[in-house]
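Changelog-adjacent note: as of this version, every example in the card shows the full chain rather than a window. The one below runs 343 residues end to end.
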Amino acid sequence: MADVPSHAFASDNAAPAHPKVIDAIVAANEGAVASYGNDDATQRAAEAVKTVFDSPDAEVLFALTGTAANIIALAAAVRPWQEILCSDIAHSLVDEAGGPVRLSGAPVTPLPSDNGLIDPARLDTAVARRGPVHHSQPRIVSITQSTENGRVWTPQAVKDFVDHAHDLDLLVHVDGSRIANAIAALDISPRDAIADADIVTVGGTKNGMLMGDAILVRRPELFDGIHFAQKQIGQLASKQRFIAAQFEAILRDGLWLQTAAHANRMATRLSSGFQALGLTLATRTEANEIFVDLAPSAHATVAAEYAVHRPDPLLPTVRFVCSWATTEAEVDGVLELLTPFAT
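Full-length structure tokens:
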């Protein structure tokens, strides 16, 4: 038994930074350059993000964390009397400590979902009470690609959802903390993964970077004041070149999709192994997260060796997350531990 459980499956946040990212940070640490994003590296990284998502007219901001990126994107879209819609498991709702509400003053309202996938028809009900002064006014809906439960929005599904939201005069935010995993899983273009969404947070922290997420503002005229929101919550980094250099490195030659594809392959290997043991998956494995139901004794056996997460302590479901650094040996180690619990 290990003295300290391995964090190999605790989260992709626990993974080390990719060597090429570290090299890029070291290379950026030369001399004095302009601060607060007024440097060449930041401009190059912004252009790289726009090019990848085929959004030449967009603006790009950078933040230190995915939570901050989401807060900035959502707060810039609403006034306090408006409303933010999202799925019932959205990170912005469940895991950001009310940050979007605190900065924007607008409520975050959950919509029923299928592991984070929202039926477009839910939006019709959500906007039904628009108009009267007694009710918050829905303004933006946030979806997650891939979802917090590891599902992916297919190109047609995300297009249908975004188009319907726009028909209802709703803006659309895509929380893309694991968007590379969705793109790699579906083997599609980044543009197809977001359809005509208005603003996208592009994850880096979970996919090989030391820290940092980007905000792709595809319709800047609809997010007036977003730069002030970024500054107010302390996310306009004075030494922004070190975030930008990481994005340059991870986007170069498709490295971000190679790292994501590896994480997805390890997740598929682990998920298939669980099924071969007769264990029950709580949801389909479509990207790099696996949710499996484990008996208390099985969970205890795994947790003694690997730090894993139970999203709901009242349920038997345990989450395993694979990263760019997950190895086949680590996957097989989990499966070996669980072999005595095969059914």
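Structural remarks: The two ends are 24 Å apart (CA to CA).
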